[in-house]
Model the fold of this input.
Amino acid sequence: MNKKDMVSVFLKEGVLVTPDLLERINEENYEEILMSLKEKKKPKEENKPKKTAERKKEAGVKDFLDYYSRKYEFLKGILLKKMNAVSINKGKKIFSKTSIIGRVKEKTSRGFVIEDVTGEVEAVTEGKGTVEGDVIGLKGWFKEGGFLPEEFVWPDIPLANRGEPPNFLLTRKLTEKIKERSGKDVVISLDSEEIKTPDPRWIDVSHGERKVSALILRPENPIGEEGFMNFLKRRELPHERKAGIYTPYLIEKIPNIVWLIENKGNWTKNYRGVIVVSTDHESFFQYKENEGGKFEKI
Done:
C-alpha cells in the first residue's frame, strides 16, 4: 500500500493527514497510528465537521500530495543530470560502488532512511545536515543491509556565469532622497503595486539590453546567511507547514537576485552566481558594478 492509499484510509475514518503525519506513516505502523488518533478524537464526536469542511480537508491533503510528488520528480530530474543513479531495490543487487536518489524518510541512530518508489534503505552516515523530506543523491556501497555513502549530491543552484547584473537598488520605501540617489539604477521598491502580491514574488526588469530576474520573499521567521544557503542547495525557499496545505516553494528557475525583505539583519552573499540580499525594516541596499553593494538607512 502506498502513501496515497493510506491517506484515503485516514480520510474515510475522518482523520486529517498533516504533513508531519504523512512523513511518519508507513505500511507497518499506519493502522496502529490511525487507531490511536481515533481514540483521541472520540470525545469530540458530537461536533461532527460539516461536509464543506471535509471537502476542504481532502483538497488540502491532495494539494500536499501533489506537491510532494512534483517536488520529488523535479529534484530527481536535476540529480539525474549529475549522476548515473539506479533504483534502491536494483542497487541492493550491485556489489560495487553505485549511486541512488531518494527522499529522506526519517532519521535513525546510525544515520537516516532514504526511500524511492521501489524501496528503502538505511544510510549509515553522520547525516551531512539532512532533514526529513530532503531529496538527495548518494554515491557509495550497499553493505550488510545498509548503504554506506561516500558522497552526498544536492540539487543545488547550478554554478554558472550569469554575468554582472546592472546597477540596482532595493528599498522598502522609495523616498525622494533615494530616487535621487538611484540615478539610472534598476530600482525595486516595496511601494510598487507589483510587489503587493503574495510571497514569493518574481520580478523581471529590463535595463537596456540586459534583463534582471529578482525573487522576493518575506521570511515567516528570521533567517541568517548560513540557514538560507542550506535552503538554496535544496532548491527550496523557507516556508511554513500547515495542516493539509503545503505551499509550493520550489526554486524551478534561477534568479539573478534573491531579496529577503523585512528580515532580521542586513547581509549579502554571492551564492554560485546568485546575489542574495537580506534587508531589515529600516535599510535599503544599493549595488554598483565593480564596487559591490552597501546598506544604508532609509
Q: What stands out?
A: DSSP finds seven helices and 14 strands in the chain. Residues 43-59 have pLDDT under 50 and may be disordered. Residues 51-80 form the longest helix (30 residues). The chain has three domains: 3-79, 88-153, 168-297.
